[in-house]
Amino acid sequence: MKRGKRFFENDKLLIYVGTAIFFILAVVLGIIMYMTTKTGFKMENETNQINQEQQIGNETESVNTDIGKTVEEQTSNTNSNGTDDVETDNTGKLDTEENKETTNMEKEEVMQNNEDETTKVNEDIENNEETEAKNEVDEPDVPSNENQDVNQTTETKNEVNFVKPVDGEIICDFAKDNLIYSETLKEWITHTAIDIKADKTSVIKSAADGVVKSIVNDPRYGLTVVISHDDGYETVYSNLLTAEFVVEGEEVTQGQTIGTAGNTASFESNMESHLHFELIKDGEYLDPKIYLK
Predict the structure, then answer these.
(1) Does an H or E element contain 54, and which?
(2) What pLDDT, in 10s, does the model give residues 249-268?
(3) Does one domain contain both 185 and 264?
(4) I want to staple 276 with a disulfide (CB 3.0 to 4.6 A). Which of 15, 203, 239, 271 is the partner?
């Protein structure tokens, strides 16, 4: 019994071993078949790709052959028409020569025009010189003394002479470009006039011939008379007590009474009685001392 049992156990072991070997062989066989199939597909794809590349190469070669034939045909046609090309070249050459001749003709015309213009300018210069010489001969000689008299007369006619409108001391000078201290305003100010000392009711006269432009009560400088003169001059008489001797628009002569001195200027009320006198030309204030005689 023991021997039979041992044989049975050995047979069972053989079955297990055989089954394992079979399983291993099956797995190996499956792997081999898989690899073979994959390799086959890959080779097939590579073969198809090679065939496609060969087909593209054949088509390209065919196209190149056709292009070569076309080029040869065009070349043969060009050779057959060689006479036309020669004629074209000859025509082009002729055109170039004609253009050169035309250019030379244009240059000659320009040079001729320049010569004509130069000749004309020279003639004009000669004519002008002759005309000037003739004018110099025709002009009468004027004695130098007569010329001086004419110039002096002109200067005298255009010059306006001013006299002092009232006799008195200048107590505040002209200061357009610098500052002076005002006792009335208690500050530094400019002064575009001269202040001439004059007692109250002193007669104020016109400094030159002219026309009364305005008579006003200025809030700063009191009763003021403005007279217009020739050559754009104006004289201004301020700080007056009265101005009843003239009216606006009246023509006045040099030395004519226009008012009396007073103390009506609020900007100069702390000063003694005086005439605030301004001289203006074309809107610009001038120093009256320079022009008074």
Answers:
(1) helix 2-80
(2) 999 999 999 999 999 999 99
(3) yes
(4) 239
Distance of alpha carbon 200 from its chain centroid, rounded? 62
Whether 216 and 253 map to the same domain: the answer is yes
Establish if 232 belongs to a structural domain.
Answer: yes
The total number of structural domains in the chain stands at 3
Least reliable range by pLDDT among 35-39, 70-74, 138-142, 230-234: 138-142
Q: How many CB atoms lie within 10 A of CB 154?
A: 10
- Biggest CA pair distance of the chain: 185
73 occurs within a structural domain: yes
**pLDDT single digits (tens) 162-219:** 999 999 999 999 999 999 999 999 999 999 999 999 999 999 999 999 999 999 999 9
Do 105 and 76 fall into the same domain?
Answer: no
At 259, list the tokens: 């008012």
Provide the 8-state DSSP code for 70.
Answer: H
Q: With contact defined as beta carbons under 8 Å apart, do 259 and 266 qualify?
A: no
Q: For residue 16, what are its two tokens?
A: 């297990």
Q: Are 222 and 130 in contact (CB under 8 A)?
A: no
Q: In the structure encoding, which two tokens stand for residue 145, read together?
A: 């003394």
- In which domain, by residue range, is 230 found? 170-291
